[in-house]
Design goal:
The protein is of the alpha/beta class. The chain has a domain at 9-230: Alpha-Beta Complex (Amidase signature (AS) enzymes). Helix content is 38%, strand content 13%. The protein is built from 15 helices and 11 strands. It is globular. Bound molecules: glutamine. Glutamine (GLN) binds next to β4.
Length: 476
């Protein structure tokens, strides 16, 4: 990993609270890095006016002798599907152009209450539909390691921003892999918490039964520090659960005696040689460090991608029905009547991929096809949940690659949606099952980062972070 201009998040906050660092300087540093690295197209908008004002407030609190929080003065970047004050929220879709958030996401509120400062909104595939950011209606983010390649998606702007050193952390969302995949392609740490551990209130909904939000950072420690602030029940999101731990940061990493299951189906055909080599070598290092390595088979896993690409569009078609030009963002303004306003707003406002998902989702939910597609997919999903539960009776963690290949070229898959969907083959099952997972950097292949994915049982977030930290130490 290249060296960063940012200290570990904990140290930044300690120095701001101690008066050694000024929040205003940190915000300027973030904004100037964003400006210098514009060619990577990671950022859709900055929130500079509000960020500068908040930095001044934090410095003023410190000079009055107050403690300004566990993230005092730490700049961060939010994926543009989080409602944030200070810039419009577009989810990278034309249909939300001009939409100003009337309130902020719970996650943003919690981070701000801890003293963190949102400085910018990151690019994404529109509505988080995609694996490369090429589905953004506005621009394609470039991979920090090779400008001709994608950063992964859909949180590609967030992952690139972290590795381009624009801020110490960024927020992403992960419905089918969108935190872990870009983390893997860019060489970042991407943490997908247990479903329900972090509130999604104020985050543009994609597929509500799998959507989660999480941190993207350079280190596991930093991810834990951010998770620690965001986790917990929220009255504004009825799917949230109580936090399992008061402190997600107080872990010590040790692999001794840990039972680690290597997912057989992920190490099979289709995995690139370079990725396989890195993952096998990472597993060997874990073995040498005392982990017991066991091969685990989850026979239903090969069906997960098909299941995901039925359930996800079904939920997308429902969640996107609210964008009709009457409440949010863009409205087609030459309509003769309301019906025409709805249809013209939606047909000119949504991009290709959103339309594709609305059509597929409506189809699989329609009477006559519901049983054959949606209901069947839910049955297979239940089977997957049972297989994961059985696996976690046998092992503490599951491991495998995050993605079958390193970052691909811009344009390589953009004309073939099925090829693009295949990128998600190793990430979607985790979402369908609701378990936590992390992608950490595990070497390179053809000069591009490879990500190791570690998966734990539901609510084992703290143990997962501890093990990821131990693995990170071995792979550095
Ligand atoms: N790439 C997956 C999709 O396009 C996952 C997206 C996500 O996690 N937001 O559905």
């Amino acid at each position: 990993m290249s060296t960063s201009q940012w200290l570990p998040i904990r140290d930044i906050a300690a120095k701001v609270n101690g008066g050694e660092l000024k929040a205003v300087d940190l915000v300027e540093r973030a904004l100037s890095t964003i400006a210098e690295k514009e060619e990577f197209a990671a950022i859709l908008a900055t929130t500079e006016v509000r960020a500068r004002a908040r930095a001044q407030e934090i410095d003023a609190r410190v000079s009055r002798g107050e403690h300004a929080g566990s993230l005092a003065g730490v700049p961060f970047i939010a994926k543009d599907n989080f409602l944030v004050f200070g810039a419009e929220t577009t989810a990278a879709s034309n249909i939300l152009k001009g939409f100003d958030a009337p309130y902020q996401s719970t996650a943003i509120e919690k981070l701000e209450a801890a003293g963190a400062i949102c400085v910018a909104k990151a690019n994404l595939d529109a509505f988080a539909h995609g694996s490369s950011t090429e589905n953004s209606d506005f621009m394609v983010t470039k991979n920090p390691h090779d400008i001709t390649r994608v950063p992964g998606g859909s949180s590609g702007g967030s992952a690139a921003a972290v590795i381009l050193d624009m801020a110490p952390f960024a927020l992403g969302t992960d419905t089918g892999g969108s935190i872990r995949l870009p983390a893997s392609f860019c060489g970042a740490v991407g943490y997908k918490p247990t479903y329900g551990l972090v509130s999604r209130s104020g985050v543009v909904a994609m597929a509500s039964s799998t959507d989660v939000i999480g941190p993207m950072t350079r280190t596991v420690d930093d991810a834990a520090v951010v998770l620690n602030v965001m986790a917990g029940r929220d009255p504004l999101d009825s799917t949230t659960i109580d936090r399992e731990d008061d402190d997600y940061t107080s872990f010590s990493g040790d692999l001794k005696g840990k039972k680690v299951g290597v997912i057989k189906e992920y190490m099979a055909e289709g995995l690139s040689t370079g990725v396989r080599e890195q993952i096998e070598s990472a597993i060997e290092k874990m073995r040498t460090a005392g982990a017991e390595i066991i091969e685990v088979s989850l026979p239903t896993l090969p069906a997960a991608l098909a299941v995901y690409y039925i359930i996800c569009p079904a939920e997308v078609s429902s969640n996107l029905s609210r964008y009709d030009g009457q409440k949010y963002g863009y409205t087609y303004d030459q309509a003769a009547d309301l019906a025409e306003s709805y249809s013209k707003t939606r047909s000119t406002g949504f991009g290709k991929e959103a339309k594709r998902r609305i059509i597929i989702g409506t189809y699989v939910l329609s009477s006559g096809y519901y049983d054959a597609y949606y209901k069947k997919a839910q049955t297979v999903r239940t089977k997957l949940i049972a297989e994961f539960a059985a696996a976690f009776e046998q092992v503490d963690f599951l491991v495998g690659p995050t993605a079958p290949t390193p970052a691909f070229k811009i344009g390589e898959h953009s004309s073939d949606p099925l090829q693009m969907y295949l990128t998600d083959i190793m990430t979607v099952a985790v979402n369908l099952v609701g378990v936590p997972a992390i992608s950490i950097p595990a070497g390179t292949s053809e000069g591009l980062p490879v990500g190791l994915q570690i998966i734990a049982a539901q609510r084992q977030d703290k143990d997962l972070l501890a093990t990821a930290k131990a693995a990170e130490g071995l792979l550095a």
